[in-house]
Amino acid sequence: MSWDRIAQTFVADANYATAERFEVIAHAQSLPLSKNGSPEWATFVKGLNKERPVIVHCASGRRAKRVAEELAQEGFHASYFKRPDQWKASGLPMEAGPAKMKRSE
Predict the structure, then answer these.
(1) Among 32, 30, 23, residue whose Cα is nearest residue 87
(2) Is residue 96 a contact partner of residue 23, using CB atoms and an 8 Å limit?
């Protein structure tokens, strides 16, 4: 993935908000699966740009897959991968954890 494409992509971390993570994908925003169905989830998703691709990740891939499927059902171009290690192995930026709860686009 090119750096230009990364800048155009919204990266969501589907891990539980309380999950202990020492390193996360740079600029990833927290979107825990546990919030699905809540007013917070609805507000968050409503604020996303449907023209901007969304990549979702978590520790195992299960939560990321469910979040990506949910977002796709709502009209987003969403994909997922299993672990931040895949991102890091590709040489893409990481930062100290945990993922941020506040989203900015």
Answers:
(1) 23
(2) yes
The domain ranges of the chain are 3-96
Specify whether domain 3-96 bears CATH 3.30.1030.10.
no
pTM, to two decimals: 0.77
Is residue 48 within 8 A of residue 10, CB to CB? The reply is yes
pLDDT in tens, 68-78: 999 999 999 99
What is the sign of the dihedral through the CA atoms of 43, 73, 17 and 9?
negative
Instruction: For residue 88, report the phi and psi dihedrals to the nearest 5 degrees.
Output: -65, -40
DSSP β-bridge partners for residue 24: 95
